[in-house]
Write a structure and sequence with these properties.
Helix content: 25-40%
Strand order of the largest sheet: 1-7-6-2-3
Distance between the termini: 34 Å
Number of helices: 11
Radius of gyration: 19 Å
Shape: globular
Strand content: 5-15%
Number of strands: 7
């Protein structure tokens, strides 16, 4: 047995990887995605099904290229892609990562995101990786920005600069999950500002990372700032996309924070 193999075996015994969805022990480095066979089989990987060519929503109509929303709504980003549909076990995994201080889930989520981004990286040269910001109060409460953790790992793997503080969120806004569809759009319209000079943005292509995309309101607000400053292309990458987009007068059924589970 080599020294490396022996060391990995010791690490596996002391700190075994667990499936990011069900929590079952996998053993160290059994899968870079940290998914057990059962969860992998039950998961819907969005690179394996037809999705909207703009927002990344799974499509139900055979032969369709755009979802109903993107047929009538113009987004500020050029393309959005996600790893999973936001439901079932994948939803619970995102909630643990986001609200339960499960920062170690960044590693498998980043691996999944990198795999999802490969076709785009292969066909286009990007200049930097950015992340959706948290307000100061929200950051103090949570202790970390899950999107920033993702973006830092993705940028390092792609050998791209990570612009950690490209955006600021100077005002505290209500949680998006508690709002009606139209209120989501208004809620983030002036919530963010750009913290880098226009000259650094002009003509550049960016990967913008967030955890979940629902209506695309946050992604649009941030992408709009980049496009207004002269960005050439914005690719939004998220862990999950909600399959159902709330319409006017409709809110999500339950609070995401209340639904989080710790194992």
């Amino acid at each position: 047995m080599s020294v490396k193999t022996f060391w990995e075996s010791c690490v596996s015994l002391m700190y075994p990887d667990r499936c990011l969805m069900c929590g079952n022990v996998l053993g160290h480095s059994k899968s870079q995605f940290c998914l057990c066979p059962d969860c992998a089989k039950k998961s819907i990987f969005l690179d394996e099904v037809p999705t909207c060519r703009i927002c990344g929503l799974p499509l139900k109509e055979e032969g369709a290229r755009l979802c109903l929303t993107c047929q009538t709504h113009v987004h500020d980003f050029d393309r959005a892609v996600s790893c999973f549909a936001y439901k079932g076990r994948s939803r619970q995994a995102v909630l643990r990562y986001k609200f339960s201080d499960r920062r170690e889930l960044c590693r498998p989520f980043a691996a999944l995101m990198l795999a999802r981004l490969q076709p785009f990286i292969h066909n286009m040269q990007f200049d930097a990786v950015l992340c959706a910001p948290l307000s100061m109060n929200r950051f103090r409460q949570r202790g970390y920005n899950q999107s920033g953790l993702q973006a830092e790992r993705v940028a390092k793997a792609l050998d791209l600069p990570f612009w950690k503080d490209a955006f600021e969120k100077p005002v505290e806004t209500p949680k998006q999950s508690s709002l009606h569809y139209a209120d989501r759009l208004r809620n983030v319209r002036r919530a963010f500002r750009l913290s880098v000079p226009r000259k650094a943005i002009e003509g550049k292509r960016f990967i913008l990372i967030d955890d979940i995309i629902t209506t695309g309101a946050t992604a649009d607000a941030l992408s709009g700032l980049l496009k207004h400053a002269g960005a050439a292309y914005v690719l939004v990458a998220t862990i999950a996309v909600t399959e159902h987009k709330p319409q006017e007068g409709e809110t999500e059924a339950a609070s995401d924070e209340a639904a989080s589970i710790i194992f």
